[in-house]
Protein 1
Amino acid sequence: MKSVAFSYAPAHEIGDAQAALGHDGIKLVSGGQSLGPMLNLRLVRPSGLVDVSGVEALRQVVETDGAVRYGAAITHAEIEDGLVPDATGHWLRYAASRIAYRAVRNRGTLGGSLAHADPAADWVIVMTTLYATALVHRPGVGEVRIPMEDFVTGAFRTALGPQDVLAAIEVPRPGKTASWGYWKYTHQEGEFAKASAAVFVDSDTTRCRIAVGALGRQPVLLREPDSVISGAVSPSQALGDALPDMSAADLRLHAIALAKALEQRS
Amino acid sequence: MTVQTITLTVNGNSVAQAAEPRTHLADFLREDLLLTGTHLGCEQGVCGACTVFVDGRPSRACITLAASCQGAHVQTIEGFDDDPLMAKLRDAFKRHHGLQCGYCTPGMLATGYDIVRRLPDADTDRIRRELAGNICRCTGYAGIVEAISDVLGNTPPSANVQPQTRERTGAAGKADIALASSAPLPSESVVRDSEDANLPGMEAFANAPTLSRQLSIAAPLEDVWRILSTPNEIVACIPGAALDANPEKDLLQGTCVVAMGPIKAAFRGIARLTFEPASRSGHVVGRGRDSFTRSVLEGRLNFAVAEVSAHATELTLDMAYTLTGPLSQFSRPDLVAEIADDLLRQVAKGIETRAAGGVAAPASHSSLNGFSLVWRIVKRRVKRLFS
């Protein structure tokens, strides 16, 4: 099937994209790896696309002592290949390498994936456990910082306002003793996850998070991750408490994902 | 319709060719440049048959807009005739029976080329993992994996095609963004009379995904039942719902617009309502077709109300549905449940408002947490079995 007719223009600056979003039916596109299939299937019928993949400001990576700030148009493959520094040592490279397929990773972008906010996407849960922050350009306000757990607000829903542009994602550098584990279940390599879980423990900063993903909405952060990490509460018990409405089969799948993520933590 | 001239390099040759903005790279290559070696299988980024090199990186041509390749270097299978590494791969594919019908082969060769140049130490497990995005329906993959292994294990020649950075043609100015902001949507097709017949039977949903919910409604049982059993009233409680004409028989006809994030679908179809007044329950069977995506939604719903107290009623819903066509790709059961829950919260509120004597204003398209999520059911003929 072919897409409906739409207009197309590359943006050169973030302001171009913000201005374009003032018109009806305009969508931003970066790598287009999620939007592309939806366009071809006519699930999405925009009047115009503004391509932000070439905006220089969205391609910047800035390192500071405490964090690395990734421009939203950095591709998964660039992270996978280590062409940009990994704030976490090697965790981001691993997470990137597990997204879809190489041909998709070559074009798909970090910011595009987060702004699309598929509940089963890798970056949504990975960035939430790593205490990342979305840096959003809002007209008339400037840069707004939104913690990742507040950025994705539901299935394909984000905290982005109508003319907001996700400019960068800031990932804090974890402490030397920090550990992290991520596991997802897919029927087939490269598919969207049916269940996923990520665990992050950083004794240096006393930060600790367990997130469960692929729930049809934004990831759920467990309220008492320490008790799960210490083994006092089992994954299935913790998930049963956090997700009381979930079916037994789904609960089991997610509990397995969490157990595997805990196991993989390194 | 606007047409843009796309200037790029294809297989080493400069090309300037006009194309509509919606044209994807695979159509551009096949239809405009007559390079039919790039195959289109699924056209939704799943099968990998259309994999070509864009700026030296394997990319899916079906989900890459040609317009986004302004200034790019594109290399298709036709451009690898004299490439020593690709020659080795072609030979190995032939010797190891790495192809049969040949449909997936251009994409397999492109991915194989990338594996050999990028992952010199790849073992067969890794090769299989890397090939997961390329579907072959003939070979069972064994021959393909062996062919790539063979090339990797026998000192492959260095790859001529390597990743490169595209020269971005400087800021062309903000005039670029003067977008036609009001491309009209295609009009919704009218339900054909032939679709009125043949509603699915209950048995059609034996293996369908199900969804069960219990809704607490702060209103007396009799008020809730009156609203539920009066099509005009319950439709008014569904966000965006409207009746096209007064229902006359038990067969309803209408449209149901569903949106989730960027996805929008407008189902037009029919439903049959049956009420069991004695047990304060009933069921609905329906079918709708989205003309944009040519997707079909069929569903059955059993519902029952029970009194909790003088001012509280529990509504039990038990649904089963099947979705076929393009939309089903994006309707994993967890997402459908999320949409349904959003909707039901609003329906419950609507019933409460109506029961209290208010008018439940159908929510606008943008009312569901900022995103449109509307089921509009236009009903024509309804028969009240209990009257």
Protein 2
Amino acid sequence: MSFDFRQTLEILTAANGVAGEETNAAAAACKLLSAYAPDARVDDFGNVVGTLPCEEADFPTLLLDAHIDEIGMIVNYITEDGFLKVSGCGGVDIRVLAAQRVTVYGNGGKNVLSGVMTSTPPHLGGDSTKALELDEIFIDIGMDGKAAKENVRLGDRALIETPLTTLAGEKLTGKALDDRSGVAVLLAVLDQLQERKTCYKIAVQFSAQEETGERGAGLGAYAVSPDYALAVDVSFALTAGEKPEKCGILGKGAMIGVSPALDRKMSDKLREVAAREGIPAQVEVMGGATGTNADAISGSKTGVRTALVSIPLKYMHTPVETISVADLENTAELIARFLCAAPVS
Amino acid sequence: MKLKQELETLCNLDGISGYEDAVRAYIISRIDGRAVYTTDNLGNLIVFKKGAKAPENKLLLSAHMDEVGLIATYHNADGTVKIAAVGGVDARVLAGRRVRIANTQTVGVIGLRAVHNLTKEEKNKAPKAEELCVDFGCETAKEAEELCPQGTFLAFDTAYTAFGNGKITAKALDDRCGCAILLSLIDSELEYDTWFTFVVQEEIGLRGAKTAAFGVEPEYCMVLETTTAADIPSAEDEKRVCALGAGPVISYMDRTTIYNKKLYELAFATAREEEIPAQTKTMIAGGNDAGAIHLSKTGVKTIALSVPCRYLHSPSCVIAYADLKNTKRLVKGLMNRICSL
């Protein structure tokens, strides 16, 4: 297998795509998708969509989904002194913001500006055991009020950008691995399907605005009207202080979702394929809805039978999200094998 | 070399307190052949440069080479590494950051439990430094120990960047700003013979300056530093302390020193005469090597000139370049006046 996850993720994570402003990330993903789906395009909502060429008219349609957006910040006020006040765009972890380097995509992305999140120095007293509220933090773009207002508009996005970096043991760290990892896995699956025969007509979407409430995925699913769907997202890898029953283990393979909101037979089939093929995988049991695009897709039109496969990821929604390349490879292998097995009845 | 380039080179080097080697080696490479130098037993670099004349008063200019950072203390079974802060580091600027083994490309991350799994209370609680660990990607304690043995120094992994209107962000601006100014003075022709010290271990208690001053025995000393500017929207009035763009900060008192009043006045007079913007601090906060130097032997008449700096001791300090240039101008004007007092 020659799919280069490092290189693919470098391209995908370098592009900015805060929820609702996914243009650059979508363009990068669309270009990569077009190698497999000649009809790849970005729809009106910002979802990247495409279908694999298929001559079998009576095959059922299966929609593969991963989300293209990432969490970030949105500018909602500019002070007289030129500091930007922001809100979270998606579930930002305020504990990591103080004194972070940020990039502001000013004037709708035309002006790419460096900035620093303010932090309150210790001499000001205050309670250092308390995380700073988003209310108390501003972006310092090093400009006075006039220059700031010329370079930034309300509604512009800002991002903490950490370049993709390799850690020990073939692990990758960076921003937006939630869910560019999922996008990369699906591209790897498509790559494998060039040499393997699937039992489905395959539609693909890299959907917009997952982080603000799984908004793009439902629209994409509506347009495709699939018989089945498989969403790929990231989920919690165990770190100190987390509950083991809520987490997978980094490096132990894909986390196969089992939940009342997911199609039981598809989940079982994924477990079966993993066991039969000897692909490392783990099970993630959720007591209700999954909090992923699987929820939106399964509820589309008269309902879509949907499975969820998650890539274990440490430090979710921080600029130092961390994944294992082995997990990406195993997740792609599992999904490709699943797609080559007969559909569930 | 241009002051800006010098600062960039200096900030991108790692020199955590007690491990200033890379910074010292660089500074030596810059001054070799231009001045005479020695290092003392703690690692301070002591430099003498001849000027056109012998001064009336022996003057020392001092800046510190070290920066705040982290040190590895323990290896957890899951392969993560426990850390302690070296110098005053607010744990809130560590979470969600990349760090590197000092002067290497080996990167680790300081992660947190996922925000999704926290209670409302936990979401608003800043992590404590002792709870934070560095994840280098190792899976066992042994693997981590091989990669990052106990006592390994870790630096913030942020690169020097110019941004905004004439602003600079980098780690270690405290006190590579001072080092950059000293280097540029050593490069230039001096009117008077002058002593310079590049000292170690300021951030853990002004330790290098103490022995350096003892060795040099100056009558007068000018400490070149950075100082907290809190000219940000969440601070008001006196709590802003000083402001970027308003020129060098001349201190009358901080937590370690009451500065020599004559020098304080002379510094402002010099600024006025040479039309250099200058300001003072509106809070008695912080401290610097002056605290150790002014009490050396029978005492040293000491003044501190500082570049105002936002987010001090964080991975992303911010200064205005104009302040750095104006601080250098003021230092130049003041040193000649002190030498001829």
Protein 3
Amino acid sequence: MIDYIQPEFHVDIDYDKCHKCGRCQGQCGWGVYSFVGRPLPDDAKCRACHRCVTFCPAHCITIKRSDLAYRENPNWPVAARKAVWRQGASGGVLLSSMGSDRPRTSLFDALALDACQVTNPSIDPLREPMETRTTLGKRPQVFGDEPPKEWAGRMTLATPILFAPMSFGSVSLNVHKALALAARELGIYMNTGEGGLHPDLYPLADNVIVQVASGRFGVTPEYLGRGAAIEIKVGQGAKPGIGGHLPGEKINAEVSTTRMIPQGTDAISPAPHHDIYSIEDLRQLIYSLKEASGYKPVGVKIAAVHNVGAIASGVVRAGADYVYLDGMNGGTGAAPAVIRDHVGIPVELALAVVDQRLRDENIRNQASIIVAGSIRSSADLAKALALGADAVALGSAALLALGCHLCQGCHTGSCSWGLTTQKPELTRRLDPEEGAQRLVNLVGAWTHELQEILGALGVNAVESLRGSRDRLRAIGLDAQTCDILGVAPAGR
Amino acid sequence: MIGNLSHDKMNMAEADPATRPIEGYVHRAPTVTVSRRDTTAATITTAASSATATPAAPPAAIVDADHIYYRELNAAIAGLVADGVRDITLRRVNGQRYLGNGLTSPDLRLRIEGVPGQDLGMFLGGAAIEVYGNAQDGVGNTMEAGHIHVHGSAGDVVGYGMRGGEVFIRGDVGYRVGIHMKQYQSRVPTIIIGGKARDFFGEYMAGGRMILLDVASQLSGDALGMYVGTGMHGGEIYARCPVNPAQCGREVGLTPATDDQMAELTPLISRFCTVFGLDADRALAGQFTRIAPVSSRPYGNLYVNL
């Protein structure tokens, strides 16, 4: 069959400057380059990940958007036409990765933070202490009460940031090591995702949250005992309501040992946990995990969907120590594009609704809220805290710090940056310690920026910003959205 | 010895709503009787050809579970195991959940008299649990190793995500039994059911072996429900009953068990019958159908990359 789809990018090489060294060919994981006296690119394979550009010693490669013109038709964007061509040729479900690339306005971008002027003093965080330490878990019902022993929040973060769950299998072991090393250095947590915990991470397990998902891959009594906390994954923002299929090609010997399934078989996670069909069942799993682990904190990760307020209320009543809300802009290692792009709701709305619902029901103290999907900057972080989050989780941002260029090729298993692949010649491209340093730098920088924001707001602790929606104003949002967010329009 | 129930209930009412036990149970350490079993244990040691002086027989313990909440029961079990007790009997068990949850002592025998509650032996990493009564949902859920034998029937999701060990149920089981069982290296889990099973038997099954005998059922009707082996991509199911392809998922194929396969099953089924006092000849008579996946990659061609 003729392929109707023309290349999206054009690899432009200035051969006058080219050293003919062939490094571009060696660096490209997608097989773009052949070499006949000089590099010859096949534009069709390029994903614009810039690996070759970054490593070209002559700076002679430029990746350009293809100039190929299509007849304009706003009702039929080129991407929609290409999808139809692709499915007409293959009959397949379109698979993609990372967060949705649909044009969608972030509500964080429509929110503005307050600052002190004249009537109340702002604080200079460079000269005065500024507390970012955050404790996750249950709190006493009444201020000043001692929390019951098992209610004590036993997850303390030096800054209200965690690394989001990404399984070993979807990402490389070196990515896991970088995340775990950085988490220890920063006094925060990384999360295994549902692929089990590799023995190399055992010494770092005090800063690791171990996840239990519907496939129960790698879940053993030992695994539950090692982590600092346990997370039940019910849903993911990028693919609410569906399970996961890690293809057999990605199950190499190492991935096989932590998932504890034979090499080369598909790792299929069922869409639901088949022992959770109700809130009562969820409570049962939470307490079963607590019994098996000596009463570690147990969190529940859910995707932000339409009725998220009621769902989160049920999750908290089921006994979760934290609720992890993952919004529809969250990333993924692989998801059907139709689900990723069209299912779920933005996390900003979900967070506002859940925080309000838990307050209205007088159970907000019983669980912390972690939000993700997608937190792109310290501004998003600060706005999420003001909307009611206890902490945020970074997935895409962490991968970006490690070199990801958001080329959306994770599901192919050929990541040129060595992040979302299991090919040894690619995974060795990430040095875990250098990666950890980049993550430490990123989280450190955001923490400093958060302190600046807190200082401008005239408060000296994240606790004082948390849930303070009166420190937010909306710009250009309709009245109903403002109402849902619990935020007044700018000028009011 | 039963404590003053009314007094305990008063304490319960004052306790925190999130941690207080379900009505009918109390937070109280159970009465534990530890005994050194002399004759039987000594005989076993001698039989194991220990030539020198007979070492002290391992102590056995009896725990009165009446009205005691599961947390205190599991704490008592953990305490006894830490003290070297390897034979524990729970008496008067009545619906307590999570019993034996996450135990990892391969030489531990835990006998349960009564009806244990949900998630019996969940995350079990080693121990032999014997239930003299029926069991509820989630027996051997996400189990890693060990044995669970139920001298009665069990509820739904028996052996969900199980990766090793064996679960024997003498009677019938409910829905979604053996969902997503898997195997890894030497760990090949086994579930044998003496009676009938409801729908979704072996759904998503990725490894291990399930055998359905239909010799000790209290139910009438078909031995297997609908959607057998839906999404199955590993392992095998043997059913000693007629199986209609319409009852099964598209991902499986049905074949009569061969003589070689029966030779593999025979010792397992014989042992099952010995455990429960069933007639092995009867259990082995009749045609067994093997239900197995037609592909280990049922969804390999489902997707096209963007």
Protein 4
Amino acid sequence: MGIKFKLEKDWHTYWKNPGDAGEGATIKWNLSPGLSASSILWPGPERIPVVPLMTFGYNDEVVLLTRITSTEKIRFPLKLEAEVTWFTCKDICIPQEGVVDVEIEEGEFLASTHNTELKNYMSMVPTTFTGNLRVEELDNKFFVQSVSPGDEQYSNVYFFPYEYGLTSYTKDQIYEKNQNSFTLEIEASEFSLDLGMFEGIIETSTPEGKKFYSISYPLKTDKSESNTNVFLLIIFAFVGGLILNIMPCVFPILSIKILRFVEHSENSSANTLRYGLFYTLGAVLSFLLIALLLVILKSSGENIGWGFQLQYPLVISILFYLFVALGFMFMSNLVFGSSLGNLGSFAQVKNESLESFLTGVLAVVVASPCTAPFMGSAIGFALLQPSLNSFVIFFSLGIGFALPYLILSIKPSLLSFLPKPGAWMETFKQFMAFPMWASALWLLWVLSGQVDKDTVLLVLIGGLIISLSLWLLEKNTSKKLGIKWLVRLLVITLIVGSISILPTEYSVKESRAERPGYSEALLNEYRDSNQLVFLNFTADWCITCKVNEKVALNSQEVISVIEKKNIKYLEADWTRKDADIARKLEEYGRTGVPLYLLFPSVGDPIILPEILTKDILLDYLNELT
Amino acid sequence: MQKTFFILIFSLLSQFIFSFVQNDEAAPDFQLLDSNGDEIVLSSFRGKRVVLEWTNHGCPFVAKHYKSGNMQSTQDFVKDKNTVWLSIISSAPGTQGYISPKKANELTASRNAFPSHVLFDPSGVVGRKYSAKTTPHMYIIDEQGLLKYQGAIDDAGGRGFMSKDLLKANNYVKKGLKELASGEEVSSPVTKPYGCSVKYSS
């Protein structure tokens, strides 16, 4: 069934997503028993700009279709009635409503003009797109890419979203037609509502007219990824907390404290347990307080625009410095804030439950001179985590820190099994430098994937300067205040200097410059020596090429396979149309880019698809012989 | 210096282009005449919350919100809550909704509405600054002058609007103000505005 809306000239009514303003029609069917109606089958809409806005609808005329189905044998005459509401708009809008009905008698089918009209509009109702389609989201833009289904060549493609908050309605979409595929570049909505799905219809133009297809593609949401390692981090934090206890400046204090409580409790196990619990409470709360401060710092940081994401070269380099410095602090006798250790004596209060609580708090503070390196790494990791995880990590750290004491307060007899404080603790502390430096190495490896090798060297030099600065601080024991401050000033200058040289931008792509450009002679040279060759025809203005490069060609896996198999990579840059390159393209029946050719050691080249994914490209590269 | 230069260029450009203001950013300041002939400056309300309502009495969507009493009930909700309500008309001269100050006051009285001020923006400069698309299109600005909400007045948008009971709809403006008053973040800070297009001069 079709309901026809015949509007006066220049008036329009709306599609199911009206765009920036207006509303689509509603149809409520009153049907004979046994009949049921589908939802409205909307023909593909037109763009109706209302400067500066954009709406989607139908000018002059539209037929909205409904599929009526019957579960039983139809009894004639059939009565169909529809209550319709809709908006008719030009520069102003008028809400309208009406009832239409029809009675159908039994009889022969007669083709009428209405029938042609229905068929016409039916052909404008979108069908599911059968082409191999994908959607990439890069830099606030969506790239809809597809191999054209069948032999269809679209002169233009336009996307209409189903929902608000996905793509921009007003900005132009850029359509790029390739040999047998297309790329459509669409600006994301100014307000992203994280819909999770890229859904809507595409309008394709061919010489025969317009056709509409519905498309639906799940979008990557990278929010769920960070949860995978939380459990591991909790364990690390817990073990870290345990290890904190045997740091040289914590262990002696704790032993004394434990003995004190054992004496005070006069062997009443209920009392010792209570002190143990209060101590645990004090320690855990202090750690949670640190987590709270961190979260506040982090969110205020995000408010002023710096995110702590591991992807940024700057963040990775600073973490590298941090871990180099932490390792150095474990290895040396360098301590910060050693005067805090004296605070321990303040914890002697009359109320013993309160005293145990304060001891817990102070153990965290007191321990800080030698726990700073540990806390530093915990803070470093917590900053990269969502806020909730930071609390969990520090909670776990606190539990780990307080647990030995809690166990001892339950069973004081275990005290005799504890090793005596001594030189071994210093040795252990120095050993802890190596995990720190191992972390620094790992960060450097991550960084090497993001920036070129000169920048990596620069960061390494920075690490050297940081170590030198810390060494200067350690040896800075001059009695003369002037000299002492002079050295400190020098150290600060050095540290600030080494941070200021850090990379803020990704620079790995500059290595592309090292890749040789295409020339017929070079290609022949490689071919004559039976080398594997990957020939990439690209241009700066080619959207498909750029998406392929970002998604597939420049991925770490692809680069490493190309290196491993010693495939010669040649780039034919057609940004400024070059006669030699044009001739080569013509050889393969092409008039434009992209074109990807893979030359095996012997024989004709393989022509790769125009739309590359990492997996497709890796398959081809791995099979190349 | 460079920054000032960019701000200058940008604010010049924003007179002509449709710009977008994001939540948690400073709401663009403006100075407009109200229906009593007074100059109203947005920044003079710092320390109070401000609700902006884009309106056009001829728009059937707006008409329904006033006829059902939904808009008035929302205005009533903000009363005595340290909140200013500014109704803004961005209709260009000769288009629907462009009215005289006298007519605006008559409308307010006849509809039993109580906006703090009805403002005129016939050039559409302020509407474009806020990328106001529809009537109604609602914005909430907090005491610090930061934009906290933009979108529809409620969730009654979508097909079949004219037959919906607005008083039963989920009112985003009331909800947002409630959340702000209790120190929370606005839970749905951006919603799809619905209604007639704002009748800008093209």
